[in-house]
């Protein structure tokens, strides 16, 4: 059971103060009866709510895909930098979503946001073996020794040994390389530190896939959309 004003506020119908006025004016019905108490306890999954003649479609969770831009941090709040939550419309902010894992401030690409804690746990927990695939540009060519080292598990500067990762060469040039890196962890600056352990530096990093969800390339950096029902279905089936 939840308060009526909280439910309507979470669905984007206004602030609690605004909703209180709407309720007082008799514009809200619950199960066919006009309600004047904004604190009424309701079951939003069962009770029929109508606001100003329009039936409320209730949903508890929200699932978003964002093409994260450079310079924005993967956090719900920060008193100095712009966060990914700041990029959301109010109608989505009211669900209080949070980023699934993190992307570094200067890393771009696919970021999932949700308020579904169970799904978040499964996506970021190494025990579920969810692949995160990155496109990276490196300041030096990649060789077979690098590929084997990633496969065997890179040891980072703090002594932590990473799980086996896949390093695939997209293009090798004289003074740089374009690669795809697949990891199943999300340690701090992990991909960058893995290459640093090999004496190389990441110049550009973009996440292009998370689990079964590829980045929607039609999204410009800073843009986002809700996941489709098909994407969600495929995502959940991967945990069965």
UniProtKB/TrEMBL annotation:
Top-tier EC class: isomerase
Stored InterPro entries: PsdUridine_s_RsuA/RluB/E/F_cat (IPR042092), PsdUridine_synth_cat_dom_sf (IPR020103), PsdUridine_synth_RsuA/RluA (IPR006145), PsdUridine_synth_RsuA/RluB/E/F (IPR000748), PsdUridine_synth_RsuA/RluB_CS (IPR018496), RsuA_PseudoU_synthase (IPR050343), S4_RNA-bd (IPR002942), S4_RNA-bd_sf (IPR036986)
UniProt entry tagged with the keyword Isomerase: yes
Keyword terms of this UniProt record: Isomerase, RNA-binding
GO terms of biological process kind: enzyme-directed rRNA pseudouridine synthesis
GO cellular component, one term: cytosol
Alphabetical list of Pfam families matching this protein: PseudoU_synth_2, S4
Species of provenance: Clostridium tarantellae
Lineage of producing organism: Bacteria, Bacillati, Bacillota, Clostridia, Eubacteriales
Protein's name in the database: Pseudouridine synthase
Domain RNA-binding S4: 2-62
Family, similarity comment: Belongs to the pseudouridine synthase RsuA family.
Listed GO MF terms: RNA binding; rRNA pseudouridine synthase activity
């Amino acid at each position: 059971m939840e308060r009526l004003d909280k439910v309507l506020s979470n669905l984007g119908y206004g602030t609690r103060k605004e909703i209180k006025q709407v309720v007082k004016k008799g514009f809200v019905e619950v199960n066919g009866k006009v309600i004047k108490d904004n604190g009424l306890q309701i079951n939003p999954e069962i009770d029929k709510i109508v606001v100003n003649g329009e039936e409320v479609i209730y949903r508890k969770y929200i699932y978003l895909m964002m093409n994260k831009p450079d310079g924005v941090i993967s956090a719900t709040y920060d008193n100095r930098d712009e966060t990914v939550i700041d990029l959301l419309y109010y109608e989505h902010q009211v669900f209080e979503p949070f980023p699934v894992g993190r992307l570094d401030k200067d890393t771009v690409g696919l970021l999932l946001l949700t308020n579904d804690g169970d799904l978040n746990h499964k996506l970021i927990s190494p025990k579920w073996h969810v692949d995160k695939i990155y496109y990276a540009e490196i300041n030096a060519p990649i060789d077979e020794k690098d590929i084997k080292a990633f496969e065997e598990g890179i040891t980072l500067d703090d002594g932590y040994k990473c799980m086996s990762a896949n390093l695939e060469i997209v293009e090798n040039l004289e003074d740089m390389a374009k690669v795809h890196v697949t990891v199943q962890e999300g340690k701090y600056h992990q991909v960058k530190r893995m290459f640093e352990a090999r004496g190389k530096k990441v110049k550009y990093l973009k996440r292009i896939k998370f689990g079964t969800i590829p980045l929607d390339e039609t999204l410009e950096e800073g843009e986002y959309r809700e996941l489709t029902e098909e994407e969600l279905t495929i995502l959940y089936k991967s945990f069965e």
